[in-house]
Amino acid sequence: LDSLPELSDALPVPLPATVREHQERLEQLAARQRRIADRVDELRESLRQAREVLADWDRTGSDDPRQRLVRLRAHRDAGWRLIRARYLESPSEEAAAALDREIAEWTRNRPERLADLFADAIVEADAQGDAAQADAEWQAQRMQKVDAIEQQEVRLGALLEELAEAEAAMDEGQRDWEALWQRAGIVPASPAAMLEWLQRFTEWCDVRSRIVLLRGERAELEQKVEAFEVELERVLPDRPTTAIAVLREIESRGNDIR
């Protein structure tokens, strides 16, 4: 107990109101950090699902219908040119021989089926044209999915930056909270725990103050008793020299008289 005054004087703890201010600040920072972290988790999950959808979509696509369409149209046009040359034009003998070779190559040595094969080429090219149109629509929808993923990635990047800022603010708030107790030499727990600790510390300080007050009153009384005993010794040199002894003697005589 002799060290109580020195201990109290060396412990400059913050006021409860100040602790509550820091508590509110830290709670707000923590809540903001949690909200952003939750949004990051949600967006990451959304991105994962979107990428899976895109992967599934890519597996349904054709190899390259547009390139096939170009080849079929070139084959069809070559057939039409051969038909025109055979039936609508009058080539020379030399040109006719070269034409026969081209027709044999185009029909795969079935020159008698030139017209039928040309008709098949038209049908196939038209069908492939429809496939190319469907592929164009497929590609457009795929691009929409890709664009949506890219937009989500941009939002995720912005959210991650916002989360980093929130974490930095939280770290700064925690440093300020710890610095508040540095002069007292205390590494603080949470604000809620330190508020409870402050209440107990205040109660302890009240008890200490009462002890100090009682010590002062005791010292004052002891000084008065000492002065009284000195005066008794001067007035009654043959009597007991302590105030307690004198009081006991007076009490004894009173009993004898009764």
Structural write-up:
Helix 3 (65-88) runs antiparallel to helix 5. The chain is mainly alpha-helical and 258 residues long. It has helices at residues 4-9, 16-60, 65-88, 93-106, 114-180, 191-235, 243-257. The two termini are 47 Å apart. Helix content is 84%, strand content 0%.
List the helices and strands and how they pair.
Elements: H1 4-9, H2 16-60, H3 65-88, H4 93-106, H5 114-180, H6 191-235, H7 243-257
Helix pairs in contact: 2-5, 2-6, 3-4, 3-5
Shape, per Cα inertia axes? rod-shaped
Proportion of residues in β-strands? under 5%
Distance between the termini: 47 Å
Would you list the SSEs in sequence order as H and E?
HHHHHHH
Mean pLDDT: 79
User: The biggest beta sheet, please?
Assistant: none
Structural class: mainly alpha
Number of strands: 0
Radius of gyration: 52 Å
Amount of helix: over 70%
Number of helices: 7
Which spans have pLDDT < 50 for at least 5 consecutive residues?
A: 1-9
Please name the defining characteristics of this protein.
258 residues, 0% strand, mainly alpha
Please outline what is shown here.
The chain has 258 residues and is mostly helical. It has helices spanning 4-9, 16-60, 65-88, 93-106, 114-180, 191-235, 243-257.
